[in-house]
Every structure is written in C-alpha cells, then in structure tokens.
Amino acid sequence: MSCSEKVCGASFPELIRRKRDGGQLSKQEIRSFVHGVKSGSIQEGQIGAMLMAIWQKGMVAEETMALTQEMMLSGEVLQWSKAWAGRVVDKHSTGGVGDKVSLPLAPALAACGCKVPMISGRGLAHTGGTLDKLESIPGFTVLQPVEKVHQILEDVGCCIVGQTETLVPADRVMYALRDATSTVDSLPLITGSILSKKGAEGLDALVLDVKFGKAALYKDLHSARSLAQSMVTVGNSMGIRTGAVLSRMDSPIGRLVGNTLEVCEALECLKGRGPDDLQELVTSLGGYLLWMSGQAASLEKGQKALAEVLRNGAALQKFEAMLQAQGVSADIARSLCSAQCDYFLHLRPAEHKTDLTAQSDGTVIDIDGVVVAQVLHKLGAGRTKAGENINHSVGAEVLVNLGQKVKKGEPWLRIHYDWPALDAQQHSDLQAALLIGRADSYHANPRVAEFILPQ
User: Fold this and answer.
1) Of these residues, 19, 38, 178, 377, which one is catalytic?
2) Given 197, 211, 318, 447, which residue is catalytic?
3) Following DSSP, what letter does each residue of 371-439 receive, concatenated?
4) What is the pTM of this model?
5) Which of 171, 204, 209, 277 is catalytic?
6) pLDDT per residue as tens digits for the range 338-353
C-alpha cells in the first residue's frame, strides 16, 4: 500500500469506515486528510466518501475545530499592520434573496475606523453573490494581489475581493466536491469552510449573519441556531472574537433583487434612503462588530455609530474611494455616489420589463423570496455551476410592502429581463408567491430575531 493511501498509519478507507460508523478522528488524522486533499494524494472518490460520512455522522467540537484549523493552514494566512490591532473585522452571511448587506456594511465599518478585508464569493443558484453584484459596475476588479489589498486597506479602510489561489486551497477542492456529493448542508463542513477562510483573513472580530426561513439554507430557527453556535464556538477557539445574528429570510431583503438592481439599492442605503429592513441588518451587524472589536461601548452605541455614517455621507465617501481603488474610473465612481444619479447611465439596464398585478383586494401578508429567486435564476440572474456567465441586468422590483393594503389590478412586482422572456409558468409561479389576506392576519417581524454572544 502506497503512502498516499495511508493516513497516520491507517489506510484512508479505514478512516472513512470509522467515521461512517460514528467514530472520532484525531487531530493528526484530520491534518493528514486535509494535506492529502490539498496535494491530490487522496483520490477524489475517497474525499467524497469522507464528506458523505461526515454529513451522515457529524463531528464532535474537537474534530470541527481541528478541521477548520487545518483547512485554514493549508494556504497563506494574511498578516496586518500592528497599528490595526483589534480593528480588523468582517462579516459572513449564509445567503439569502436580495442580500446586498456587504456593499454598504464594509464602507460603513471603514468610516467608523475599522479595517475590512472582505473576501467574498460568487453565487451558485438563485441570484449572484457579492462579487457578481460588484462586477455589474464597469471597471470593478475583484481579483487583487495581497500587496494591493494591503494598500487599499491602508488608504480606504475596506475592500471586497475574491479568494486568491493561496488562501485555503483545501477548501476549493472540498467545496466543489460538497456540491457534487450533496453534502453542502453539513454543519461541520459549513463551519470549516466559512471559518477557515475568515481565519485566513487574519481577523480580530467576525459577525455571522445566519439566516432562517423559506429562502434560507436552514428553514427553522432551531437549525440556524445550531449552526450559529457551532461557528461561534469554533471562531472564538481560533482567537477570533466571533458572534452571530439570526435573521429572518422569507421575503426578499429590501425591494430590489438581482445583481445590478441590488447595487442601486445598496447605493440608496449609503445615501440614507435605503429600505428599513436593509438598514436594520447593516446597523445590527455593523454595530455588533464595533462592540466586539472595542470600537463601541455597547451594541446600541455601535448601531447608532453605523446609522450616523450612513446618514452623514461618510460611508458613501468610503464606498466611492473603494470603487476607485478597485478599478472604477473616478468619473463613474463620483457619478454613482452623487445625490441624484441616474444609475443606468453607468449600469446596464435590462431590455424588457413586465409588471405583475394583484389578483385580489387585501393586505400583503407575505412574498415568497424563493419563488422570485428561482424565476430570476431561470431568466439568467444566477448560475447552476461555477464558471457560468450570468446576466447582471436581470432582476425584480418589489413594488409593495408587507402589511400594505392593495387593490386588485395594482402592480406588485416588476421583472427586468432580456431573453428568454417570462413564460406562462413563471408568471403563474410569481403570482403564487404573493400572499394577500385579511389585515388582522399580518404580523410584522423585524429581520433580526436573535443575537448569539461571543463565548
């Protein structure tokens, strides 16, 4: 048997069998497994079998911590100026429909004195990820060398970039195989993937936005809380002050969904005109980070500080500077950040728009974000596999608010599309996403349901 087939004296099939049967792996065995994943010395099928065994049997806290640590150490770990000690922060969201929170949050934190090296991803399914949204802005460059990231953080205070080849290479292999083996929703694998990347950023503090609901990975609060607590435990064990926010994800965040449209709404938030639920998430997550990193004396004072930089234009100035630092021309950046900009002078609009109208009188009780996202995906806003092109201009405008009274025939949704056109089934699906009922059956809930404190 070759050394590539053995891990710490045991054959790799033996380790798969042990985990499949509910056994525990040692730190050294996990270290050797991650090394084999990175080096390619373990067969792809065997990696997939181990991922499935972990999905079926889970991991104890010690295993999850060891997996996360070894994945982080599989590549470069970023180091920052000692002058920034305590102020290097980031957030991670488990994803949702219309989730453009990172775009206003990063510059708002920078305006409060933090350094935010936000390493983001591209979306799979639904609509695009944070990088896809930003790439709808002409000239914006998400791939930056580490030296440039250092310079942007020094000059601006925040950047939003893609993962480099040297950061957590083991995760790139495992993430692709998790998708292929339907093990994406494994709690220890999610924890390891997210926190290994955040650990490699060299963070002082991290807030996790763990979503629950119809349009989230986890449908109920209990499951979301379990994931959040796992990540908070592991994050703090790695020396990152880590807390979590549990937030509702049923209807779309804000009123605009789709890459280009979400950039427009993020800019409106930065100009103090954003929708209430988006502002709530930005101030809650940012305020939590300011408190955890010692920049604010309490969560409430942190939230007030975030709200103030959104109100007074300081966050907007940081966003404009970040755009220029990452390749957008000064003229376009300045225009997009001006008070009365027509965003479609610079961002490509869709060729067609179609309005959907309410089918009855009543009160808007719910809008199913999953249905909206699935239709937009079919129209080109998202991708099915990594590397596919997406149409940044495809999107949706929600024209009504939850709790609002509507009349039959009143427009409630506007779809922006190029080609293919909206077909009859998609039109029917979207109409079913709008729930209209009696006013007394609507109960307003804030986006943020719960805070989980650092341990």
Assistant:
1) 178
2) 197
3) HHHHHHHHTTSS-SSTT----TT-EEEE-S-TT-EE-TT-EEEEEEE-SSPP-HHHHHHHHHHEEEE-G
4) 0.93
5) 171
6) 999 999 999 999 999 9
